[in-house]
Amino acid sequence: MTLDAETRHPLRVRRPDLGFSAADVPRHWFGGSAVASHMANGVNLLFPLGERFFVRSVRHFLDRIQDDPALLAQVKVFAGQEGAHAAAHERYFRLLEEQGYRIAPFLRQYDRIAYGFLEGVTSHELHLAITVALEHYTAIMAENALSLGVLEQAHPAVRALLLWHAAEEIEHKSVAFDVLARVNPSYGLRMAGMAFATVGLVSFWAAATLMLLSQDGIDRATALAQLRETQRQRPVARTVFLRGLREYLRPGFHPTDNANEGLAASYLQSVGLA
Questions:
Q1: What is the pTM of this model?
Q2: Cβ atoms within 10 A of the Cβ of 81, count?
Q3: With 60 as the cut, is the pLDDT of residue 8 above it?
Q4: Which long-range contacts link 87-90 to residues 24+ away (Cβ below 8 Å)?
Q5: pLDDT band, residue 4 (cuts 50/70/90)
Q6: pLDDT in tens, 47-58
Q7: What is the DSSP letter of 218?
Q8: Rounded to 10 degrees, what is the CA torsion of 121, 116, 208, 51?
Q9: Using CA atoms, how far apart are residues 107 and 17, in angstroms rounded to an integer?
């Protein structure tokens, strides 16, 4: 299933004025919890390189969708939105560095493994399928952020960054999927992308979180115990990964099956970004 031109949601690039200062944002900005803060920081570290990979993966197939001007237009705005997200999260990186965290070594390793090596030895079609799967996960995380109040205890400056990002992830959740459906609608390819996406996201997210907790002087055994307790209170494994897999495994799945566009529209309207 793909969307026709009449049902595609109009997109636009926004660049809200977001400011981060170590003088204003505490190290443990998520309800005073080191674990909750670094779980969020950990996935934030993955975003800029990941989003630029998404854009490369989709744009590689522009020649295959030339007969669909509506989808072409959405791809252009998708790339603009993802570029704006990457730039905003990199500004947030400077806050982490001001707070004393050494993130550059992790980012170099992440780049070397995920994009220097793995991207170099796998196919462009698989890159697109991985992008589609990760877009599905981010849309679910976005829905949870906007509907379940999971960011209520976050510092307002960081919450503004994450909710703007969340709303736009919902807005463009179908773009990469519709490109893949035109390029190669194989269920097997879609599942291969999901396998790579799940293993990669879990592994790099966990590594980033543990790295940050270690820099706070929390040993690995204690960190893992605290992560398990945080998972009990905020079950990301169930609400994101298990839900994501359950939905995605259905052969006829399309991102619009999750009717969460109203959440994004309401939030953007509420902050003057509609």
A1: 0.93
A2: 23
A3: no
A4: 87/48, 88/15, 88/18, 88/161, 88/164, 88/165, 89/44, 89/47, 89/48, 89/161, 89/165, 90/48
A5: low
A6: 999 999 999 999
A7: -
A8: -90
A9: 25
